[in-house]
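Internal QA ticket QA-208
Title: Verify multi-chain structure generation after dependency bump
Assignee: T.L.

Test input:
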Amino acid sequence: MKTSVRDGQGGVQILDLKGKITIGAGDVQLRETINKLVEDGKKNILINMQDVTTIDSSGIGELVGCYTSVTNKGGKLKLLHLPPKINDVLTVTQLITVFDVYESEPEAVASFAG
Amino acid sequence: MKTSVRDGQGGVQILDLKGKITIGAGDVQLRETINKLVEDGKKNILINMQDVTTIDSSGIGELVGCYTSVTNKGGKLKLLHLPPKINDVLTVTQLITVFDVYESEPEAVASFAG
Amino acid sequence: MSSTKESSASGPVRMSLSSRFENIEMAQHLCGKLLEGHEIPDETRHWILMALREVLANAIKHGNAQDRGKRVHLEMDVTGEVLKIQVRDEGAGFDPDKVDDPLAPENKFKTSGRGIFYMKTFMDDVRFQRVEGGGMEIVLTKNLAGAKDKEEKGS
Amino acid sequence: MSSTKESSASGPVRMSLSSRFENIEMAQHLCGKLLEGHEIPDETRHWILMALREVLANAIKHGNAQDRGKRVHLEMDVTGEVLKIQVRDEGAGFDPDKVDDPLAPENKFKTSGRGIFYMKTFMDDVRFQRVEGGGMEIVLTKNLAGAKDKEEKGS
Ligand SMILES: Nc1ncnc2c1ncn2[C@@H]1O[C@H](COP(=O)(O)OP(=O)(O)O)[C@@H](O)[C@H]1O
Ligand SMILES: Nc1ncnc2c1ncn2[C@@H]1O[C@H](COP(=O)(O)OP(=O)(O)O)[C@@H](O)[C@H]1O
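Actual output:
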C-alpha cells in the first residue's frame, strides 16, 4: 500500500491510500500513518479510499482501530470514495453506519467544520 | 487450436492455424486436418503459423509428421509467417532446414509452382 | 435453478505453501485459474477469493503462527458446479464454537475477529475439524451454479 | 555477473495435479506467478515455462500413462536466484541414458522424442532419478541471474 497525506481546508488531513490493505501488506502501515497524525495533534482525518484495490478482515480491523484511536483523542475520522466492494464488506459486518462516508471531497472536508 | 483452410492460386491449400499446438490440445487436430487434405488429393499445402501462440515438442512432432506424410504422397508442405519463438524451437532441434519457410504469402504460394 | 452440471476438467488441485502472508496471492491466483472454466459472475469470483484469503491468513497466523517451517495445505476442486476449498494447517487447532460473534455490540469495535464471519458470509458452507496430530482443517464450499442464479435474479 | 542475491520470499511451493494435460497450464500459471518477483527477461520466462510444460507432459503421458487417479507432484522454489523445479510422477520410471538423441539423422523425422532435449536446452541442468516405490523424479534448475546476464550480453 502507498499512503500520502495532503492538507485540506480547515486543517483537515486527507490521507490518500493506494493498493492493498491486507494482512502483512498495508494493515500495520495504515495504523502507523494514522497514529503519527494523531501524535502530531491532527484531529480531523479524511481517508480517501478511491484507489484501495483490496481489503481483507485485517484491513477492516485496522480501519476500525484507526477510527477508535482518532475518536478517543477527540478527533473525527471519515471516509471518502468508498469502492463498492469495500462498502459491501463494511456493510455485512454492520460497520458501515460507524463511518461517515462521502462521495465528494469538498463536501467531506466541509463536514468536519460542522 | 482453430484451423481453417483456404484455396490459394494453383490449387495450393492454405491452412491457417490459430492458438496452441500442444499435447492434447491441437497436436492431433493438426495431423487430422493435414491427413484429410492429403486424402482429398491435395498435394501442395502451406501452413500459416502467424497466429500460433504456443507450441511444444508434441506440436513440433506433429509438424514433422505432417511434413513426412505430405512428402510421401509426392506433395509439398511449407510454412508461412513463423513466429520467432517457434523458429527457435525448430532451430535447436535442427528442423528449421527441413521446412521451406516464407514471410510473404504470395511468394510462398508461387513457390509451389516452381 | 441451473440445469448445467459439468464436472471440472482438472480434478482436485493440491498445493502447499510456506507460512507467509505473501503466498496468499499465489493460492488466490491458482483458484482464479481453476474457476476460469466456469461462467460465474466477477462478483462471485471476488468473494470466493476473499474467503480463500481469510482462511489462508488464519492458517498462517493462528494455525502455524507464521512459522515458515510449517506449511499450509490447500486442496481445491470443482465437482458438479460445487467448489470445495480445503485448508489444513500444522497448528494446535481451535474450537470454532468459542469464537466471538463480531456483530455483538461488545465486539463491534474490535480490531479483529471478522475473518470467519466473512468466510461464512461469502461461501455457502464452512466446516471446521481438528485433524489427527494437531492442526485444523477448514472446508469451504460454494455452489457456483447457485451463485449464477442468484446474481441473475438479483439484477 | 550479477551481484544481486535475493532469496525468494515465498519459500518452496508444492502442488499436485491429476494426470490431465489440461492441468499443465495451471502449473505454468503458478510458476509464472512465482517468477513475478524476479526481473528476468520475457524470453527466459517463456523457455522456463516451456521446459515445465515438457516435464509435466512426460509425467502425465509416460509416467502416469494418463491415469487420472495418479498424480503429478510439483515443487518449485527460487533460492539465491536459482529456480528449481522438481517433478515426480507415480509411474514405472525410465532409464534416461536409453533415450534416443533427437538430433541423430535416424531420429530427425520422428514425431516424438524431443521433450527432454528441449528441457536440457532451455534449463541449466536436468537430473533424473528413480524414486522409491516407483515413479521418476526430474529436477530442472535455472540460474535466473545468469539468464539476465546472458540476455544483456546478447543484445
Ligand atoms: N487455523 C486456525 N488455527 C487456530 N486458531 C484459529 C484458526 N483460525 C481461526 N482461529 C481462531 O479463531 C479466531 C477468529 O478468527 P477470525 O474470525 O478469522 O478473526 P481474526 O483472525 O481476526 O482473529 C482467531 O482469533 C483464532 O483464535
Ligand atoms: N516421466 C517419465 N516416465 C517414464 N518415461 C519417461 C518419462 N519421461 C520421459 N520418458 C521416456 O523418455 C522418452 C523421451 O521423452 P521425450 O524426450 O520427452 O520425448 P517424447 O515424450 O516425445 O517421447 C519417452 O518416450 C519415454 O519413453
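Spot checks passed. Residues 1-7, 151-155 of chain D have pLDDT under 50 and may be disordered.
Status: verified.
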